[in-house]
C-alpha cells in the first residue's frame, strides 16, 4: 500500500546512481541545437561524442511526489558553443526544480516563455532554484565533466519541443579564452 | 510577474546557506522527545545544547513549487539515545521529500501512519527518497555534525503533533559501543 523508502549512494565524483534508469544523449541526438551546423556535422561523423548522460529515479506522475536524477554533462564545444543539455519547459509549466552542482564547472540558462533569459554560474555546492514557468538548460564551461543532481516534481513532465524549435535567446560561447553569454543571432522572439 | 531564479553557494562543510532563514532547536525545545527524562533535564540545566540548526529557502505554499533546506544535526546523546530532529509527517500527507547527506554519519527513521518503521543509514552521498505518507526523522550516530540537504514541495507543510505525542515505534541508541535500532518501549500503536 505504501511505497518503500529508498536510500541510494550517489557517487558525487561520477554522478552514477546504482539501479537508476540511464539515458545517453549523443551529439547526433541534438540536430539543429547548435549554431555552427558544419562543426556539428563534422563532429557527428568523427565519433559522435556523448554530450550527456542522465541517471534518473522516477516515480509515477503524481502530484506531490518527487523524482531525482543526476546528469553528467561532458566538456566540449561545437564551434564556439559549449556543450549543453537540450533544455526544456515543464509540461506542467508551474512546476519548479532544484539543481545541486556536485563536480566541474558550468551554469544554467533559464528563460521565460517570452524569451527573457538569465545565466546562473554553477560550481560544486551551488544550489539553483528554478522557479515555475522558466525553461532551463545546463552548460559545461569547464574542462571536466560537469555533474549535478536535480529534484523535480513527479508530475512536472517535459516540453522539449518549444526549445528544440526556438532555442534560447542567449548562447554560451568561448571567445578570446573567456566564457561569454551573448545574444543568440538566430533567436526570434 | 515571474519569480527570479536563484543560485546560492551552499557550504557542504558547514551546511550554511547564505541569506537563508535560520532556525535553532535546543534540547529544551524537545521536552518529552527522549526516553531518559532525567538525563534530558540534567543536560538542559547544564548548558541546554543546540541539537540542530536549519537553514531554509522557502516559497509560498503553492502546488508544484519547491523548498530546500540544510540541517546541521549536532552529535550527542540523551542517555543512550542519539540526538535527532523532532520528525514530522507532512500536513499534506501525500507530499514526498528528497534528502541528500553531505557530511557526517547518521540515518533516517521513517514511519507509516500505522507505526511501521524503517531505518536508512546515511553517509555523504546518500540520497533518501521519502515516499508520500511516511513520517521522517534524522539521527546523528557519529561524532561530528551530520549535515544534509532536503528538498520538499512548498505546499507539504508540517505535522509535528502526531510524532510529538506518540514518537516513533523505534529508537536509535548506542549500546555496547554499537548503533542499534530497537523497539521504543513507550510506543503504543
Ligand atoms: Mn526540468
Ligand atoms: Mn519533511
Automatic annotation (TrEMBL), chains A, B:
<dbReference type="InterPro" id="IPR051610">
    <property type="entry name" value="GPI/OXD"/>
</dbReference>
<dbReference type="GO" id="GO:0006094">
    <property type="term" value="P:gluconeogenesis"/>
</dbReference>
<dbReference type="InterPro" id="IPR014710">
    <property type="entry name" value="RmlC-like_jellyroll"/>
</dbReference>
<keyword id="KW-0408">Iron</keyword>
<dbReference type="GO" id="GO:0004347">
    <property type="term" value="F:glucose-6-phosphate isomerase activity"/>
</dbReference>
<dbReference type="GO" id="GO:0006096">
    <property type="term" value="P:glycolytic process"/>
</dbReference>
<feature type="binding site">
    <location>
        <position position="97"/>
    </location>
    <ligand>
        <name>Fe cation</name>
    </ligand>
</feature>
<feature type="binding site">
    <location>
        <position position="136"/>
    </location>
    <ligand>
        <name>Fe cation</name>
    </ligand>
</feature>
<comment type="subunit">
    <text>Homodimer.</text>
</comment>
<keyword id="KW-0479">Metal-binding</keyword>
<keyword id="KW-0312">Gluconeogenesis</keyword>
<feature type="binding site">
    <location>
        <position position="88"/>
    </location>
    <ligand>
        <name>Fe cation</name>
    </ligand>
</feature>
<dbReference type="InterPro" id="IPR010551">
    <property type="entry name" value="G6P_isomerase_prok"/>
</dbReference>
<dbReference type="InterPro" id="IPR016758">
    <property type="entry name" value="G6P_isomerase_archaea/bacteria"/>
</dbReference>
<protein>
    <recommendedName>
        <fullName>Glucose-6-phosphate isomerase</fullName>
        <ecNumber>5.3.1.9</ecNumber>
    </recommendedName>
</protein>
<keyword id="KW-0413">Isomerase</keyword>
<comment type="similarity">
    <text>Belongs to the archaeal-type GPI family.</text>
</comment>
<feature type="domain" description="Glucose-6-phosphate isomerase prokaryote">
    <location>
        <begin position="24"/>
        <end position="182"/>
    </location>
</feature>
<comment type="pathway">
    <text>Carbohydrate degradation; glycolysis; D-glyceraldehyde 3-phosphate and glycerone phosphate from D-glucose: step 2/4.</text>
</comment>
<dbReference type="InterPro" id="IPR011051">
    <property type="entry name" value="RmlC_Cupin_sf"/>
</dbReference>
<dbReference type="Pfam" id="PF06560">
    <property type="entry name" value="GPI"/>
</dbReference>
<dbReference type="GO" id="GO:0005737">
    <property type="term" value="C:cytoplasm"/>
</dbReference>
<keyword id="KW-0963">Cytoplasm</keyword>
<keyword id="KW-0324">Glycolysis</keyword>
<feature type="binding site">
    <location>
        <position position="90"/>
    </location>
    <ligand>
        <name>Fe cation</name>
    </ligand>
</feature>
<dbReference type="GO" id="GO:0005506">
    <property type="term" value="F:iron ion binding"/>
</dbReference>
Amino acid at each position: 500500500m505504501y511505497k518503500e523508502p529508498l536510500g541510494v549512494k550517489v557517487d558525487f565524483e561520477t554522478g552514477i546512481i546504482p539501479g537508476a534508469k540511464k539515458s545517453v544523449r549523443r551529439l547526433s541526438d541534438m540536430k539543429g541545437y547548435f549554431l555552427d551546423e558544419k562543426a556539428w556535422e563534422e563532429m557527428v561523423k568523427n565519433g559522435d561524442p556523448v554530450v550527456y548522460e542522465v541517471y534518473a529515479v522516477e516515480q509515477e506522475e503524481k502530484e506531490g511526489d518527487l523524482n531525482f536524477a543526476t546528469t553528467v554533462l561532458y566538456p566540449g564545444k561545437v564551434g564556439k558553443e559549449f556543450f549543453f543539455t537540450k533544455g526544456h519547459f515543464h509540461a506542467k509549466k508551474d512546476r519548479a526544480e532544484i539543481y545541486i552542482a556536485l563536480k566541474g564547472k558550468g551554469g544554467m540558462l533559464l528563460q521565460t516563455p517570452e524569451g527573457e533569459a538569465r545565466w546562473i554560474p554553477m560550481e560544486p555546492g551551488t544550489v539553483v532554484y528554478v522557479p515555475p514557468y522558466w525553461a532551463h538548460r545546463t552548460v559545461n564551461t569547464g574542462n571536466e565533466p560537469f555533474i549535478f543532481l536535480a529534484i523535480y516534481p513527479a508530475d512536472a513532465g517535459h516540453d522539449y519541443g518549444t526549445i528544440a524549435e526556438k532555442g534560447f535567446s542567449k548562447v554560451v560561447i568561448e571567445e578570446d579564452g573567456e566564457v561569454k553569454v551573448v545574444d543568440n543571432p538566430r533567436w526570434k522572439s
